[in-house]
Design a protein that fits this description.
275 residues, alpha/beta, eleven-stranded mixed beta sheet
Length: 275
């Protein structure tokens, strides 16, 4: 049964730096927010090869459950659930179907979010409305502004789709591939975009992110990261640093970071919403 609701669904293993600002940027535009967290990465192994050395894989240092309890325990609209998975393939599709089971019904539309993606608060509602009127497509996504280390640096624009909005009645049996992305997705109108803070996490979390990427990339068939990236390109970055893409075979696809003036309304929105 489909009801006239709009949902947001998140997955998170690490990276709580921006999840509160992310949730707060969409929750006023949806009826329910489901957050699924895991305490293990997709590939669990005790060792990882890093900088030509075999080292112990560090454990996850963040407690997502405690974080969610602290900020959302009394929020009926926001629920959080433990869920372990050994592959990102179709993960959001599975999380959607789990949410339907928990709710007892399906929504009319759903947006799939990552914890480092933030919107201007006006955008999610506009995205739902745009998809409602574009009756020839089942889903659409936004272009991303990918920030680099701080909100006043970004990487050049890439055609990498951000959060995806799905119209369930038009695609009841959809699959979502590795992330929020789908090969049939179309971009929303140019005035809509999301901010991606995936390169702006704290140092400890960014290193953990890098090590887990090294560990699971080969196992899931993803591009292999450059082991030197964390220290050479990110940790010791200067405005002159070049070739910032993490994938070893695609370094040149991000030539350099460039100065950026972020919307001051969103800066203030995030400041008020910060943990």
């Amino acid at each position: 049964m489909v009801v006239m609701e709009r949902w947001a669904i998140y997955r998170i293993h690490y990276g709580i730096d921006f999840i509160k600002q992310s949730i707060d940027s969409v929750k006023d535009s949806v009826d329910r927010v489901f957050v699924y967290y895991s305490v293990h990465p997709w590939v669990v192994a005790p060792k990882v090869t890093y900088m030509n050395k075999i080292m112990d894989m560090p454990g996850l240092h963040e407690d997502v459950q405690s974080f969610m309890y602290r900020y959302y325990k009394a929020k009926q609209k926001v629920s959080y659930h433990k869920y372990e998975c050994n592959t990102p393939a179709n993960q959001f599709s599975k999380l959607y179907r789990m949410s339907v089971e928990k709710a007892g019904h399906a929504p009319r539309m759903v947006i799939f979010m990552e914890p480092d993606m933030v919107y201007h608060k006006c955008v999610p509602k506009a995205l739902f409305e745009e998809l409602e009127h574009r009756t020839d497509i089942p889903c659409l996504g936004t272009r991303q502004v990918e920030l680099w280390k701080e909100h006043y640096w970004r990487i050049p624009q890439r055609d990498r789709i951000g959060p995806m909005v799905w119209h369930i009645e038009r695609a009841p049996e959809f699959n979502t591939h590795f992330g929020t992305w789908h090969p049939n997705a179309q971009f929303a109108s140019d005035q809509f975009h999301n901010y991606n803070f995936g390169f702006c996490l704290n140092e400890r979390t960014m290193l953990y992110k890098h090590l887990t990427a090294i560990q699971f990339s080969a196992a899931i068939g993803d591009s292999i990261p450059s082991e030197e990236w964390y220290e050479e390109k990110w940790l010791n970055w200067t405005p002159l640093t070049e070739d910032l893409e993490i994938s070893a075979n695609y370094k040149h696809t991000i030539p350099k970071a460039e100065p950026y003036e972020m919307d001051p309304v969103v800066i203030e929105q995030m400041r008020k919403s910060a943990p």
